[in-house]
Specification:
The protein has 233 residues and is mainly alpha-helical. It contains nine helices and no strands. The protein has helices at 15-25, 27-46, 48-64, 66-87, 97-124, 131-162, 167-175, 179-203, 207-232. Mean pLDDT is 84; it is low at 1-10 and 228-233.
Length: 233
């Protein structure tokens, strides 16, 4: 086999090309998650037993405050995906128990962050489910919160984990230039394709139910992406 040219000699891939490639790779999973989120919203408004269950969940959210936000997001984003990856023979060797603790703590923090973000949007834009309110929230979420902070901090966290929790590889990658263009923007573009419809469904629910729906979708999303990734190994 002929030797591959060094990475620096290859023309950089445009972020929109990388984002489109990632979106295509996860297209079926993304559509399934979008349909699932829509079904949850429709069930809340049109299926009385589901509505009653969600009302009780909303009451529990109001009683527990941040505690349920932390526990739910840590479980759905960290614990359950780690259990899946650790139980799968093809991925278990890439994830140690330190990985499990790290991802659980990371997503516990994200539970606090997302909870306060949803509260801030409700305070700034409104807490109704009108088309105008939902549309503005989706724009702020996908064009401000995600590209400035959410995607960036998540990419950094996972890159730090993949580097064995060493800062040197991250700093070297940053010093290579065009870091945001190469590492973050493709994820932002792919994120818009998948999560923009889902966030619309999230913001169509009352505030106490927005994070629980996010958590449920997050759980299936991480499990599906993990399954797709291990099939490519």
């Amino acid at each position: 086999m002929s030797a591959q040219p060094p990475p620096s000699s290859l023309p950089p891939e445009a972020p929109w090309h990388a984002g489109l490639r990632a979106a295509r790779a996860h297209l079926k999973a993304g559509i399934a998650l979008q349909v699932f989120a829509l079904a949850v919203v429709l069930a809340y408004y049109w299926h009385p037993p589901t509505h009653a269950l969600f009302v009780r969940l909303a009451e529990l959210r109001l009683q527990t405050g941040l505690l349920l936000s932390i526990a739910g997001t840590a479980l759905c984003g960290g614990v359950l995906p780690f259990i899946y990856l650790k139980a799968n023979p093809e991925t278990r060797h890439g994830y140690t128990w330190v990985s499990g603790v790290f991802f659980t703590l990371f997503w516990a923090y994200k539970g606090i962050e997302v909870d306060y973000w949803y509260r801030a949007l409700a305070w700034m834009v409104g807490n109704d489910a009108s088309v105008r309110t939902v549309f503005i929230k989706v724009l702020l979420d996908q064009l401000v919160y995600c590209p400035v902070w959410a995607v960036t901090i998540t990419v950094l966290a996972y890159a730090w984990h993949n580097a064995g929790f060493r800062l040197a590889p991250l700093l070297a990658d940053f010093r290579a230039g065009h870091w945001y263009w190469r590492q973050i923007l493709p994820g932002v573009l792919a994120n818009i394709g998948l999560w923009a419809p889902i966030t619309a469904f999230v913001y169509a629910l009352p505030l106490p139910l927005q994070l629980p729906l996010f958590d449920i979708v997050l759980m299936f999303y991480t499990l599906l992406i993990a399954h797709i990734t291990q099939r490519k190994v």
